[in-house]
Amino acid sequence: MSAPDRWVRFETAGEGPRYGFVSGESIVPIAGDLFGEWRRAGEPLPLAGARLLAPVIPPTFYACGINYEGHWRTAAEEFGLDLQRTWPRSPEIGYRAQSAIVGPGDAIVLPSDVPPNVQVEGELAVVIGKRAKHVSAAEASEYIFGYTICNDVSARGWQFQDRTFWRAKNSDTFKPLGPWIQRGVDLASLVTRVSVNGEVRETFRTANMIHSIADYIAAMTRYITLVPGDVIIMGTDGHCPQIQAGDTVSIEIEGIGALTNPVIRSDAP
Amino acid sequence: MSAPDRWVRFETAGEGPRYGFVSGESIVPIAGDLFGEWRRAGEPLPLAGARLLAPVIPPTFYACGINYEGHWRTAAEEFGLDLQRTWPRSPEIGYRAQSAIVGPGDAIVLPSDVPPNVQVEGELAVVIGKRAKHVSAAEASEYIFGYTICNDVSARGWQFQDRTFWRAKNSDTFKPLGPWIQRGVDLASLVTRVSVNGEVRETFRTANMIHSIADYIAAMTRYITLVPGDVIIMGTDGHCPQIQAGDTVSIEIEGIGALTNPVIRSDAP
Is A193 in a helix, a strand, or coil? Predict the structure, then answer.
């Protein structure tokens, strides 16, 4: 058997989260370390109807911020930002919070007092497979295990009003991740599509980044050790569609899959 | 036996990290969940000479930023910041990176190209013990498992030059944490002392915060679910001593302990 290309984290009644790989219409459960030694463990189960979870909870959750020219321009115009100051001169990494992660199909829950302009950012998520320090851009791809999709949900009112991104980008459920980790992806050919209620609202070439994944990994690992399971979300392009309770938002990246989440409003005061 | 007050995470030759509690001059190893069900497991070993690790790797690592009036004033003056804009009007939380955490005694490794002004920030670290959402300030203490100490090492050159705190505060080894988790602490009586090479350089009342721990937990859990093991570092007061390779820095909080780390320079280019 060749190495599996599609890895899921999933849950069945009465058992905690497990990993498995997709084979045809089935999930083949594994035991051991997804990033190291593993073996088949247990009977295959149908992929359809399985409860998929965020495919990884990263030890550290990295985010590129503005990393596409189209988003840089539209964000600056929409929010009245200074174009020069907003331009990402170099691949400086930011962070997101593990506490905000949910899986495919999970609800994005809008806090009752969130300002009206909540937007979705469809982003490629890189999953690191090997410990990496002082890695060159030329070697960077060897340290990537695979790719998944992140919706970097952003409450713009809070984003520009608060000192940090705590509730703007890291409120509970604001970081859907999934649906799985895909290996063997041809980055150059990827296209990202962001849809709300089935209507495509933004389409962009996924690889059209200001700073490439390899450049980010090289810059980051000069100072930071990446470890297996770390996730880097690569930014979004163009205009970010607004969402509200009742919507369903889907981010599809051809060759990876689609991350789909309903939007509801919290009933907590 | 009454509930243990001092918890360590430690490592012995040939075994991975384990938890234990301190009893007299010994560590009593446990199996199970520090924050839930646990039992004694194995023979006690001497505390002296044990290799202590960072006492917890938080699922999410929270940081208050400026949270003492003295540090607000000195930082604004030293770095030419606007006093009004820097004042933390409300308890908005920030983040630090798990990747930067090291334990007591581990070296703080200065990257070869770090700008000269690297400073230490001595901070109380709150360790969460129970899942917390929509918790009031009055109830907040019930969700705290105990306290440890963090050195929020900060490369000021990068802090004010970069768009994020990635290498300024999150370079590898820049977040020493430890030496243990202390329970049964009287917060009101705590005093923090920051020493470099044995000389006390800053002393402050630990509880003299702008926004209290309870206020932070109440504000955070309006939007964010805290889980057992999460860490919140509470900020520092006064002036932050500068460090360089060859120094040894120690942060002592009376009633908790002392977190001591040598400073070296990376030999990587």
Answer: strand
Amino acid at site A52:
L
- Give the C-alpha separation, A172 to A99, whole Å: 6
| Per-residue tokens: A31 | 């035991």
CB contact under 8 A, A166 and B94: yes
Give the residue extent of every domain in chain A.
6-53, 61-265
- CA gyration radius, chain A: 18
In angstroms and rounded to an integer, the radius of gyration of the C-alpha atoms of chain B is 18
Q: Which residues of A touch B97 (CB under 8 A)?
A: 60, 95, 224
Type of residue found at A80: G
Nearest to A223 among B60, B163, B172 (CB): B172
**Residue-level length of chain A:** 269
The second-level CATH assignment, the architecture, of A61-265 is: Alpha-Beta Complex (3.90)
For tokens 């937990």, name the residue.
B217
Torsion region of A18: left, alpha or beta (phi above 0 gives left; psi -120 to 50 gives alpha)? beta
The strand pairing partners of B27, in sequence order, are B22, B45
Q: Which amino acid is at B67?
A: N
User: Rounded to 10 degrees, what is the CA torsion of A40, A46, A48, A52?
Assistant: -30
User: What residues form DSSP beta bridges with A233?
Assistant: A63, A125
ipTM: 0.96
Fold of the B6-53 domain: SH3 type barrels. (2.30.30)
> How far, rounded to the nearest angstrom, does the alpha carbon of residue A111 sit from its chain's CA centroid?
21
Confidence bin at B128 (pLDDT 50/70/90): very high
Please name the helix (run of DSSP H) or strand (run of DSSP E) that holds residue B108, with its range, or none. Answer: strand B108-110
A89-134 pLDDT, tens digit each: 999 999 999 999 999 999 999 999 999 999 999 999 999 999 999 9
What is the β-pairing status of strands B257-265 and A257-265?
unpaired
- C-alpha distances out from residue A258 to A123, A148, A183, A237, B4, Å: 11, 9, 15, 17, 49
Interface test with A, best of B72, B171, B223 (most A CBs within 10 A): B223
Backbone torsion region of residue B245, taken as left when φ is above 0, otherwise alpha when ψ lies between -120 and 50, otherwise beta:
beta
Task: Determine the straight-line distance between the first and last CA of chain A, rounded to whole angstroms.
Answer: 53
What burial letters (b/e) apply to B24-42, b meaning 16+ CB within 10 Å?
A: eebbbbbeeebbeeeeeee
Nearest residue in A to B219, CA atom: A167
Alpha-carbon gap: A252 to the closest alpha carbon of chain B (Å): 27
List residues of B whose CB lies inside 8 A of any A CB: 57, 59-60, 65, 88, 92-95, 97-100, 111, 133-134, 162-164, 166-167, 170-172, 220, 222-227, 230, 268
pTM over 0.90: yes
Q: Is A212 exposed, middle or buried (0-12, 13-18, 19+ CB in 10 A)?
A: middle
With contacts defined as CB-CB under 8 Å, which chain B residues touch A163? 65, 88, 92, 94
